[in-house]
Every structure is written in structure tokens, then in C-alpha cells.
Amino acid sequence: MQDAATEADLLTDGESVKKTLSVIELITSGGTAGMVIIALLFVLLIVATYIYFERLFAIKEASKVDANFMNQIKDHVTNGKIDSAQMLCVQQNSPVSRLIGKGITRIGKPLEDINTAIENAGRLEIYGLEKNVSVLATISGAAPMIGFLGTVIGMILSIFEIANSGGSIDIKTLADGLYTAMTTTVGGLIVGIIAYVAYNHLVVKTDKVVYQMEANSLEFLDHLNEPT
């Protein structure tokens, strides 16, 4: 009976030693340096999230084009209703309609001049679609490096404590440096992966809008080049 009681006490003592660590505790256990770097990574995550959703909605809005838009433009141009065609472009107010509108203003000039005007307008539209997207690419590369900086700082703190321990290492202080190293690395990788995926998704969405602009521009130029 006494052995059983002793074993139960040992199990109880063992269970009392077990400790769960929440995310907040994991961050705060990394010391001041770790919390500063985690805070910086959190700010980068907020910036990346804002840019992603802002650009995503803007690109989705830019990709909306009336299915009958080009047919109406062709009818207006064929019938010589240039003003009506321009008004239709203004009403649509999309990258495609602005490109076609720029071409309509050049009707009567050589086809090469019309094509050049559309290409120049297209570059401006693409620049507008890609606004701040490069920031996501920067964050996807910078966040892991910032996390790695925290890793180096944490390891330096741990080595410093070992060097100055005088033979008796304070495990708590040593653990703080290791917490800093690990938490910042994980945080940097998470932010970097999110920003990288968001960037590539926006690039794919932007390429679809660019293809849409090119296809409609070529259709418009082909119509102008048709024999009357």
C-alpha cells in the first residue's frame, strides 16, 4: 500500500511539472529583442494583408467588362458614331474601355499611331494594377531575414550567458535566448510565406486582366483594319 501511495505521489508530482505554453507566452518568453522583432513582423503581416485585399478587389473590379461592349463599339465605329463610342467607353470606366477610348480618339490617323497610343495607355493601366504589389514581394523576402536576425540575436544572448555563467548556467536565462531564436524564425517564415503566396496570386490575377486588355485592343485594331 505504501509503495502504491508513493507511486501515486510521484505521478502527481510529475503531472504538476508539466506546463503548457500559449502563443502569447511563447512570444513574451523571448525577451525584449524577441518581442520587438515579433511586433515588426506583425506590422509587416498587417501591411501585406491590407495590400493583398485592396489590390484583389481593385483587380476584380478592373476585370469586369460588359460582354457586348466590343460589339457596341464596333457598331458605333462602323456607323461613324464616334461620340457615342467615346461615351460608351466613359460609362464603362474599366482598363479595357479606357484603352479602346484612347484608340477611338486617334481614329483618322495611321493605324500605327493608334496602336502606339493604345500601348502607351496600356502601360499606364498595368502600372495602376500593379500598385504596391512589389511591396508584397519585398515583405516575402524581408520577413524571413528579419526572423533570422532574431535567431542570431537569440543565439548571441544564449552564448553570452554561457560564457558568463562561471560554470553554473542559468537555464531560465538560456531558454529566453533560445525562445527568441525559435519564435522569430517561425514568425518570419509564416509572414514570408503568406506574403509570397499573396504576391503570386495577385500576379496571376493581373496577368489575366492584361491579357483581356490585349485581346480587346487587338480586336479593335483588327476592326479598324478591315476593308470598308
TrEMBL record:
InterPro entries with a match to the protein in the record: ExbB/TolQ_transport, MotA_ExbB_proton_chnl
Topological relation to the membrane, as annotated: Multi-pass membrane protein
Presence of keyword Cell membrane: yes
Domain MotA/TolQ/ExbB proton channel: 92-214
Protein transport recorded as keyword: yes
TM annotation in the entry: 33-53, 133-157, 177-199
One Gene Ontology term, aspect cellular component: plasma membrane
PANTHER family, per the entry: PROTEIN TOLQ (PTHR30625), TOLQ-RELATED (PTHR30625:SF17)
Family affiliation: Belongs to the exbB/tolQ family.
Name of this chain's protein: MotA/TolQ/ExbB proton channel family protein
